[in-house]
């Protein structure tokens, strides 16, 4: 039975440069003899003394087995030889024959390329036996990564140590204490391999080593594991204030290692205007009891460090009363009135003189 093949022609149009000596013209075809389905292959046609070839060069191939992906070939000239490289894609199982013909006798040539998986049936003479050969392309064992990057939940890219290389399989990295998770972006060299990542969804434990593994399994089943040891910096325990001021109490002053204060304010003050700064920028501050203030009220300022350590600053409210104010006012008026002072002095001297007079009598 004859098998009819559809042929597509590629024609190199060559301008006739004059009839020179064509005896040196030679055409060769190079490239792989096999291509998988839906994979590409480069075929190179090399012509010696190309400018002296009379007429045209024609390339034909079976379009039901191969598809030409090159609208324009890659051309190269070396040592007087001119080469044209075309890219073909295998589209159906079979044996494709590529032929090159020219107007110059003796320069024609051809090349066979096996596409996909082929079952060949060979009949030997006499026709008594039949052998069947199945050719299968070997599966890839490429289980390497082509790139690897880490990013924290805060959007910061993480530096790997050492820098990534496909042939290095263990890395270390350090992230800030505020980073809770990292995301992994891993790319494979071979798209036919499989990728599995473990540990990237877990929250990082502060002050400890957190392991992330990336396993690449090649097409033939061969595994390879990349390991990243991520250290999250320890959480801080500082739960103190570096600054605290109270607008309603000009005499208030924050002291180191002192957490309880008596704060004197006017009798009409209902709330305190507080301005505070934690010693650690990652600490949080909460204020309780700072409303409808009365004499004896307590305002509590709670500072919570990154690691959960808490420290409470207590402000005991002392409100100014009318009695205290009058007493202070009277005292001030007495101290500042010179007539009263002179009168009291005269009385005192009179009493002393009277006592002395009585004693002498």
TrEMBL record:
Name it: Cadherin-like beta sandwich domain-containing protein
Is Signal there in the keyword field? Answer: yes
According to the record, the signal peptide region is: 1-22
Keywords for the protein's UniProt record, in alphabetical order: Membrane, Signal, Transmembrane, Transmembrane helix
For whether the record's keyword set contains Transmembrane, the answer is yes
Show the stretches that span the lipid bilayer. 339-359
Organism of provenance:
Candidatus Aphodocola excrementigallinarum
Cadherin-like beta-sandwich-like domain: from which residue to which, for each copy? 145-233, 241-319
**Disordered: annotated segments:** 124-144
Under the heading InterPro entries, the entry gives: Cadherin-like_domain
């Amino acid at each position: 039975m004859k098998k009819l093949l559809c042929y597509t022609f590629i024609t190199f149009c060559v301008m006739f440069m004059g009839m020179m000596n064509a005896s040196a013209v030679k055409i060769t075809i190079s490239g792989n003899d096999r291509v998988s389905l839906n994979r590409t292959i480069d075929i190179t046609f090399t012509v010696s003394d190309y400018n002296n070839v009379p007429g045209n060069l024609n390339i034909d191939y079976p379009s039901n087995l191969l598809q030409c992906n090159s609208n324009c070939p890659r051309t190269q000239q070396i040592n007087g030889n001119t080469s044209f490289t075309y890219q073909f894609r295998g589209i159906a199982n079979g044996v494709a024959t590529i032929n090159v013909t020219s107007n110059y006798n003796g320069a024609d040539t051809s090349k066979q390329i096996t596409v996909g998986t082929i079952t060949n049936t060979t009949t030997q003479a006499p026709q008594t036996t039949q052998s069947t050969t199945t050719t299968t392309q070997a599966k890839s064992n490429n289980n390497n990564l082509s790139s690897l990057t880490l990013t924290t939940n805060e959007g910061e890219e993480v530096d790997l140590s050492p820098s990534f290389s496909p042939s290095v399989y263990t890395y270390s990295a350090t992230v800030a204490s505020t980073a809770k998770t990292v995301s992994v972006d891993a790319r494979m060299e071979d798209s036919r391999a499989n990728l599995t990542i473990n540990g990237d969804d877990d929250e990082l434990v502060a002050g400890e080593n957190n392991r992330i593994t990336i396993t690449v399994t090649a097409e033939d089943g061969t595994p390879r594991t990349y390991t990243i040891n991520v250290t999250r910096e320890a959480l801080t325990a500082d739960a103190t204030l570096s600054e605290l001021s109270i607008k309603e109490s000009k005499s208030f002053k924050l002291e180191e290692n002192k957490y309880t204060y008596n704060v004197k304010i006017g009798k009409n003050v209902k709330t305190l205007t507080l301005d505070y700064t934690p010693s650690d920028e990652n600490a949080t501050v909460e204020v309780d009891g700072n409303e409808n203030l009365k004499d004896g009220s307590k305002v509590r300022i709670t500072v919570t460090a990154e690691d959960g350590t808490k420290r409470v600053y207590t402000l005991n409210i002392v409100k100014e009363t009318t009695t205290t104010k009058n007493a202070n006012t009277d005292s001030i008026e007495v101290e500042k009135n010179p007539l009263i002072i002179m009168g009291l002095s005269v009385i005192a001297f009179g009493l002393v003189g009277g006592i002395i007079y009585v004693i002498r009598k």
